[in-house]
């Protein structure tokens, strides 16, 4: 059996590492494909070093562009790769453009497609990631859900039980494996901060940073909070571009993008984290740090019902209330089941049981036409 594991952006690297390691431990031949969706040293290279992730076997170098341009370049390059080097299974992770593109190409090339982190739903069709994850699930044969709510989403959409595998969270595998090394990093001393004396902020979603009418009021709210607690803000390139050199409110300290270990170290010692990132919602839950999600919904509701996450959106009153509750220690620390560091092993066991070279399943393996339409599934509550 030969398995291609595809990663393209920084969240993908954390998710693919446990699967890749577990497959190799089972003597499965693997091909690590880096699409190059994130391609600079701060967004890509440092993660390979921090995660001790081996160098990619193939680098597609697709670069940036619109969603259509980037997706098309991944599809064209990955299709050529699979023609040159056929594989039995294509593993895609997460919900970025590379995930969608590689899943579609893998399906059309006759490989078994496995989607890691399947079944997550925000019900917000304005999010490009929501479209990506839904389409990736639709063309996949093996669906690895990180939590029971994600598995239930898949069942509600008509997927068969034998396609759905409740595996746990691969992000947690990576976090648990790297936590000790992260806490040994000198980043807090380098920045001159003490544990519990700052808040940590991340902003990168287009709906938050691409429109000045949204971004500037949001920064204003954060500036209010920073009067009571200084805020550190590692600036994603999208945010830097949106700011265009404009100053941020007093009390907010802009940082360059951080490597994985340094970011985890800052997360672990933060008094509160404010974010629009799905992965950060999961990491803070595992680290026991209060998290306020600056979006109207989350595709990871388990971090709300069984974690430390509170969805506050961009409403100033809700943000202030959530912030006050976090500072007062009113947000309970809980962790979901199966977030135990063994998700990669469970996924590898299922993939390794596939028969090499078997014909790809017929369309009967896809969601049943009799099932509910995706847009008719009730919205998740926060």
Q: What can you see in these coordinates?
A:
The protein has 382 residues and is of the alpha/beta class. Helices cover 44% and strands 14% of the residues. It has helices at residues 10-25, 41-51, 67-84, 97-108, 128-138, 148-156, 170-183, 187-191, 206-209, 212-225, 237-243, 260-269, 278-287, 302-305, 316-327, 343-352, and strands at residues 2-7, 29-34, 58-59, 89-93, 112-116, 142-145, 164-166, 199-202, 231-234, 252-255, 272-275, 291-293, 309-311. The strands form two sheets. It has a seven-stranded parallel sheet with strand order 3-2-1-4-5-6-7, sandwiched between helices. Helix 1 (10-25) packs parallel to helix 2.
List keywords for this structure.
single chain; 382 residues; alpha/beta; 7-stranded parallel beta sheet; 16 helices; globular
Helicity range of the residues? 40-55%
User: Largest sheet, described in full?
Assistant: 7 strands, parallel
Low-confidence parts: 357-382
Task: Quickly give the structural class.
Answer: alpha/beta
**What is the number of helical segments per DSSP (H or I, 4+ residues)?**
16
Q: Proportion of β residues?
A: 5-15%
Q: How would you classify the quaternary structure? A: single chain
Biggest β-sheet: strands ordered side by side in the sheet: 3-2-1-4-5-6-7
* Distance between the first and last residues' Cα: 42 Å
Specify Rg, calculated over alpha carbons: 20 Å
Form type: globular
Mean pLDDT reading: 91
The string of secondary-structure elements, in order, is: EHEHEHEHEHEHEHHEHHEHEHEHEHEHH
Query: What is the β-strand count?
Result: 13
